[in-house]
Amino acid sequence: MDYNREYYTNGIVQLDAAKQLMRLMPRQADSVLDVGCGSGKVAHLIYEHILPNFMLAIDSSAEMINQARLLHPDSKVMFSHQKIEQFVSNQSFDLITSNSSFQWFQNYDASINALKNALNPRGVFVLQTPYKQNWCPQVSVLINEFFTRYYPELGQCFTLPCMHFDDPEQYADLFESKNFTTASLVTRNFEYRFTGDDFRKFFMSGAYKVYTHEKSYSVAIPDRFAEDLERFVSQKVINQSVFAVTISRVLACFKPHI
Ligand SMILES: C[S@@+](CC[C@H](N)C(=O)[O-])C[C@H]1O[C@@H](n2cnc3c(N)ncnc32)[C@H](O)[C@@H]1O
């Protein structure tokens, strides 16, 4: 499985959540920055919605940016391989978006400072990110079965590598401590009855990365682990036709103090 190459078709929930996030975006913005744009599907959705004069989309993964350029050769969105933590620009942006990427940022102080510096003082930052440590109970059940059957010791060494506050207000507190005002903050549960194939796509778009990430474990991951996990999920989807899944997300809009 190639996470970066397959993300474009696998990111089902991220796309649905982005459609909800667009409700928090201003209808007009001259300049837009999308942070953690992945292979660019959501960035284009945002572009089509706002039609800005200038849009930059950055991602810390060179492979994702390559995919974005490959899949959208005539794009009006400028794709750039950059980490938000080190982002500096002469341009200030009216709108900055982060859809399903914030949880992966490695340094929140540096990231939020960079966002603030890049934002027009009258601009807005909109965020969609998972919350709750147990972000999808059905995935937890599945993964517990996998660990118990095949990797019981490794399972004991797992910790979530990305930020998922359990209380949505903690996102407001974080941004308010960095001189932002919370203009709106809502939580949404996304409910699905996935077919086996769509469940596999959904799993590969997020959970797979979480559970195969070296930072998720206090010990080294065995060589065959990722392959075994993928085979386990593929086997499950052959044996079960419907997967009822609930995913919790927080959607928020923050404005810098003027
Ligand atoms: C789940 S994908 C989301 C992609 C897209 N925004 C979407 O909604 O489909 C998360 C992306 O964030 C990127 N990312 C993670 N940390 C980042 C950072 N510090 N700076 C910029 N991008 C980052 C990852 O490389 C990945 O492509």
UniProtKB/TrEMBL annotation:
Gene Ontology MF annotations: methyltransferase activity
One GO term of the biological process aspect: methylation
Name used for this protein in its record: Methyltransferase domain-containing protein
Pfam families hit by this protein: Methyltransf_23
Entry keywords, A to Z: Methyltransferase, Transferase
SUPFAM superfamilies assigned to the protein according to its UniProt record, in alphabetical order: S-adenosyl-L-methionine-dependent methyltransferases
Species for this entry: Vibrio tetraodonis subsp. pristinus
Organism ancestry: Bacteria, Pseudomonadati, Pseudomonadota, Gammaproteobacteria, Vibrionales
Gene3D superfamilies: Vaccinia Virus protein VP39
Database matches in CDD domains: AdoMet_MTases (cd02440)
